Amino acid sequence: MERDFQETVIEINRISKKTKGGNQIRFSALVVVGDKKGGVGVGLSKAPNVVSAIRKAITQARKNMVKIPLKGTTIPFSVRVKYGAARVMLKPARPGSGVVAGGPLRAVFESAGVKDIVAKILGTNNKTSNLYATIEAVRMLNGLLEVQKEVVL
After folding, report:
1. Dist. CA 123–CA 82, nearest whole Å
2. What is the pLDDT of residues 105-147, one digit of tens each?
3. Are 69 and 142 contacting, i.e. CB atoms less than 8 angstroms apart?
4. CA neighbor of 128 nearest in space, from 116, 140, 136
5. Which value, to the nearest 10 degrees, does the dihedral of the CA atoms of residues 135, 110, 3, 73 take?
6. Residue 145 domain-assigned?
């Protein structure tokens, strides 16, 4: 049974490497994959042509999917994460406010199916670092939710 995924290409980079025989040109693709039910994954891959790089990145993103915990149409609580030079802040939003996020973060939450959230990039402008920081923030949300469940029990 194949699940229906929304695939968003965030960035395509041309990579050139000097070799004895001349320049070796490759492409890297950064892709976000989501199932519109809270699951989201990020993939970064390199290949000799763009189509292969995108295909490999999608495969990698599907393997590394995480579940975004939802409370209604938003996340349960606020979180700030530092991942390398990237700093990301995620906050719950009132119903009807929509996805208030910039660039790559917007793609993550729209492909995951989050309806209301406020997200802010505080550190670097590097899309790859910001996406990995966002995934780390989602993992932290999952961990905090587990701790909250243990405290309640």
Report:
1. 8
2. 999 999 998 999 999 999 899 999 999 999 999 999 888 877 7
3. yes
4. 136
5. 90
6. yes
Give the SS3 label for residue 142.
helix
Classify burial at 103, counting beta carbons within 10 Å of its beta carbon; exposed 0-12, middle 13-18, buried 19 or more. middle
User: For the chain, how many residues are written?
Assistant: 153
45: in domain = yes
Instruction: Report the predicted TM-score, pTM, of the whole model to 2 decimal places.
Output: 0.89
Within 10 angstroms of residue 134's Cβ, the number of other Cβ atoms is 28
Domain at 111, CATH number: 3.30.230.10
How far is Cα 109 from Cα 101, in angstroms, rounded to an integer?
A: 9
Say if residue 25 is in the same domain as residue 90. no
Note whether 75 and 141 are same-domain residues: yes
Q: Is residue 1 part of a domain?
A: no
Are 125 and 52 found together in one domain? Answer: no
pLDDT at 3: 67
Q: How many domains does the chain have?
A: 2
What are the residues whose beta carbons fall under 8 Å from the beta carbon of 104, sequence distance 6 or more?
10, 30, 32, 127, 130, 131, 134
Tokens matching residue 119: 């997200």
> Which stretches of the chain score pLDDT less than 50?
1
Residue 20: domain span: 6-63
